[in-house]
Design brief:
It contains no helices and 24 strands. It has 267 residues and is mainly β. The strands form six sheets. Strands 8, 9, 10, 11 and 12 form a five-stranded antiparallel sheet that branches.
Length: 267
């Protein structure tokens, strides 16, 4: 498989007059993750590194279900259906485990959230508000900052085509206009934990990155990552692994974390 991988862009976090720049190396060669079986919508659990996917394979509860492949320390074992609390006869996809023991996913175009108990498993899913579930919503990413403000990123076709939105504390979603085009599709976003790097696809098999120097800045121009059959890419919690779907195959790439630079303002 010929795949175009581009170097990642440095991200700089600004705090109280001191800037700490976290820089990553270039993404490595793409590898197929064959152990989990076919599927799409891959994402890694922020606690366990287990790999969640969506798949219509046999043994499920409906046309498309969510499956989990346990991480074994060096790779992933075969994927197992997460069960009937999450999966129904309706299509479920875009799994999104989040810190705080929350599990977001999409069912028939609406975003749901389930609380996950370490012993008792998934709680009954609840659909998010009609303000968020206003049309066909995909690929939620839930993050919190140091002040416990929450950010839910997702894509929606409420304006005609899929564009990327963010909802702060589950309030009214705002379109990310710098990543939205009038005649294109920007869909299935995933955002790195520091909210300085975002990855999405255009619905036509092309995956793009956008980055910014601080969370107060607009998102920068998209940079092509891979061209072909790519969709729904997502970061690991440490930002060093990327997984995505490619025509029913789960792919991954890794990068290294470079030394952090510290720059202090001068009077």
């Amino acid at each position: 498989m010929n795949i175009r991988l581009l170097a990642s862009v440095a991200a700089i976090s600004l705090t109280c007059g001191t800037a700490q720049a976290q820089q990553f190396g270039a993404w490595g060669d793409a590898e197929a993750v064959t152990s989990v079986g076919g599927g799409g919508c891959p994402i890694l659990d922020p606690y366990t590194n287990d790999l969640f996917i969506a798949s219509g394979r046999d043994g499920g509860f409906g046309s498309n279900d969510i499956w989990r492949a346990p991480y074994n320390g060096s790779g992933w074992d075969a994927a197992v259906n997460v069960g009937p609390t999450i999966n129904t006869a309706a299509p479920e996809y875009c799994p999104s485990p989040a810190r705080g023991r929350m599990f977001f996913f999409v069912r028939s175009g609406d975003i749901y959230m389930s609380k996950v108990h370490p012993k008792n498993g998934y709680g009954a899913p609840v659909a998010l508000s009609d303000e968020i579930n206003a049309a066909d919503e995909w690929s939620p990413t839930y993050l919190e900052d140091d002040e416990d403000t929450s950010y839910l990123y997702f894509s929606s076709d409420r304006d005609g085509t899929q564009d990327i939105y963010v909802s702060v504390d589950f309030g009214t979603p705002t379109k990310i206009v710098e990543l939205s085009s009038d005649d294109g599709t920007e869909t299935r976003p995933n955002v790195r934990r520091d909210r300085l790097e975002l990855v999405y696809d255009d619905g036509a098999g092309n995956i793009y990155f956008s980055s910014r120097e601080s969370t107060d800045d607009p998102w920068g121009p998209p940079v092509l990552f891979t061209k072909g059959n790519g969709s729904r890419a997502s970061f690991s919690w440490d930002g060093m692994t990327l997984v995505w779907g490619d025509g029913g195959t789960i792919m991954k790439s890794t990068r290294s974390k470079l030394a952090k630079l510290k720059m202090v303002d001068t009077p």
